Amino acid sequence: MQPIRFVVKVGGGKAINHDLVADDVAHLWKQGERFILVHGGAAITNEVATALGHPPRFVTSLSGHTSRRTDRRTLEIFEMVYCGQLNKAWVERLQARGVNAIGLSGIDGRVWEGPRKEAIKVIENGRRMVVRDDFTGKVERVNLALLRLLLDAGYLPVLTPPAISYESEAINVDGDRAAAAVAAALGAESLIILSDVPGLLRHFPDEASLIPHIARNGLEAALGFAEDRMKKKVLGAAEALAGGVRKVVFADGRIAQPLQGALAGRGTVIE
What we know:
Elements: E1 6-10, H1 18-30, E2 36-39, H2 42-51, E3 58-61, E4 66-68, H3 72-95, E5 101-105, E6 112-114, E7 120-124, E8 127-131, E9 141-142, H4 144-152, E10 156-160, E11 163-165, E12 170-171, H5 175-186, E13 190-195, E14 213-214, H6 219-222, H7 229-242, E15 247-252, H8 258-263, E16 268-270
Parallel strand pairs: 1-2, 1-13, 2-10, 5-10, 6-11, 13-15, 14-16
Antiparallel strand pairs: 3-4, 3-7, 6-9, 7-8, 11-12, 15-16
Helix pairs in contact: 2-3, 5-7
């Protein structure tokens, strides 16, 4: 199999221009690049969950990171939106551009595997609590044999959470960190994370405060001014670099040619 130069993670922000991203994906694919696309979809999932009478609930860990509280019903809604509507929309969009995309969740073929957290410790209303009926976890294993099989056969894998636990339960995992695991496992040179901002902003939401470059040893400091979901992206970047990925780029998914721009260094480059 030819080397995988990069892995792409497309966030779930509603301002991201999926058509422009798909145009660029198709252009690079037809130029002979081979890569993996991972997508999110938190914004639409929140809307669907609210419409179904089970609105999203977010919890804050003791370390200050916010994540989705994933009970069994939330997981079912998550699967419906991510694995159904959003994943197949990406596949349809890419097929229309001549890319033979195939959509998989992390459950399928055990693409993403890891432990389910036995309990999560959170802070709610100023009090420390332990939540035990939560279906969240972390990707520790990537099914490289399956991904290589698909790539070698000419398919573009389009991946989405959830993953599967070692006990064969569906688990919600962070998409940015799952993409980092894929990039590290494949030995990719770069991980590109597209969102609805031009990169990491020192003074969110002021886009003029874009930070163009961060050294690897500056990631801990970057967590101090990363807002909301960007904290998980910074954690994902750190894990990708620790796994051997040379460069992570936070780039703008609202513009034309976002991937080509990111590969050229447009956005926030961490290396």
